[in-house]
Task: structure prediction
Amino acid sequence: MLITTGIAAAATVPGTPEDDAAASGVRSETTVKVDVKRHAIAGNVIAITGKVRPADSRRVTLKAAGKTVKSVRSDKDGNFRARWSTPGAGVYEVKAVAQATYSAERAGSASKQVNVYRAAQASYYGPGLYGNGTACGQTLTPSTLGVANRSLPCGTMVTFRYRGNTVRVPVIDRGPFAGNREWDLTAATKAKLGFGSTGVVLATK
Result:
């Protein structure tokens, strides 16, 4: 009689929420968080880290600009980590997608933006030209934010970084046409970056 009672009691021990979800055919909601450096140099290797809930060993797909760059497995606590070799200069949206399991749904993280830069020679322009029209149809003033480039379409957005300062501005003009310089920053753009008259900047184009 005691043995029978013990068996009956064991049969009523509740399972984990995941076990209950699996038994009922209903999967638990998944949450995914991802973290990555915001600024990187093209060709450098950077870390992508994150966490999946419910915590478990899960297959996690890491994507940049919509393309799969890595596939890893989270540890038993839900943590994951991967190394990503950044491609050419550009602005990339990085996210993580946790694949479904028998007890948890498939889900993706919010995207994190990564600015990937290359180094380029730059100068600045403006004084003596204020009031003139730019090649892209604007009027150049001391407060105009933008950059001149010889070939990028008007309105192309470019992020620049210099000594820890970052600014994102559109292409508004053509130039520079001297030396090996690729960019001509307006005076307002120059000021926001803390840039001198000529030198090397980091650019996402």
Remarks:
- Helices lie at 2-11, 17-24, 187-193.
- The radius of gyration is 26 Å.
